[in-house]
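Students often ask why inverse folding is considered easier than folding. One informal answer: many sequences map to the same fold, so there is more than one right answer. In these notes we will look at a single instance of the problem. The structure comes first.
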């Protein structure tokens, strides 16, 4: 096993140990020492991989964000930026469904911790940037300015958070992909809150 493989294995061991302990004891009830012991490493090694407990807690969310960022790099033939964004977001919804038990349990823990809620907000900013990057990709062209792309990314993120909130409230038992597709369909059509001038 080379050095990079060993580092990857150690990181994965930390992630798995921390996840199990957080789900069992909660965030506040789990210490860095607890995680290090469960992962079979030293406290110093833990902090070399994760400077804070919050970063260890959100490690799987970082993986999801990284997966999304990798997916948008290669749009499908004929996709414009919005098509790419929609496809990749719905793919991520499928990932959440596959990891339903953990995702729902983690969200329950987040709601009980101010520090985790603050860290989640910072993560949301990065998701918004990633969505904006996706909107700028694809074979098609867009008339949107940079500011309008950011506004649209913010709208998509806000809608995504709201859909996820409903999904979490239902214990992850609903079809998140179908919910996301319906919400994106509605966003594309508009909500018709004002009559269109000249119509």
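Output (designed amino acids):
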């Amino acid at each position: 096993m080379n050095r990079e493989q060993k580092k990857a294995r150690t990181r994965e061991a930390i992630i798995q140990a921390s996840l199990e302990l957080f789900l069992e004891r909660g965030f506040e009830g789990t210490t860095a020492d607890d995680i290090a012991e469960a992962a079979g490493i030293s406290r110093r090694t833990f902090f070399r991989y994760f400077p804070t407990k919050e970063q260890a807690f959100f490690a799987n969310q970082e993986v999801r964000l990284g997966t999304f960022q990798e997916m948008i790099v290669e749009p499908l033939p004929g996709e414009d930026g919005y098509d790419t964004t929609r496809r990749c977001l719905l793919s991520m919804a499928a990932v959440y469904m596959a990891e339903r038990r953990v995702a729902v349990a983690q969200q329950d823990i987040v709601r009980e911790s101010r520090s985790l809620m603050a860290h989640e907000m910072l993560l949301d900013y990065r998701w918004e940037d990633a969505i904006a990057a996706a909107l700028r990709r694809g074979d098609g062209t867009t008339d949107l300015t940079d500011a309008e792309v950011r506004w649209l990314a913010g709208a998509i993120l806000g809608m995504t958070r709201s859909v996820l909130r409903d999904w979490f409230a239902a214990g992850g038992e609903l079809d998140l992909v179908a919910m996301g597709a319906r919400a994106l369909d509605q966003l594309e059509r508009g909500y018709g809150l004002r009559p269109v001038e000249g119509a």
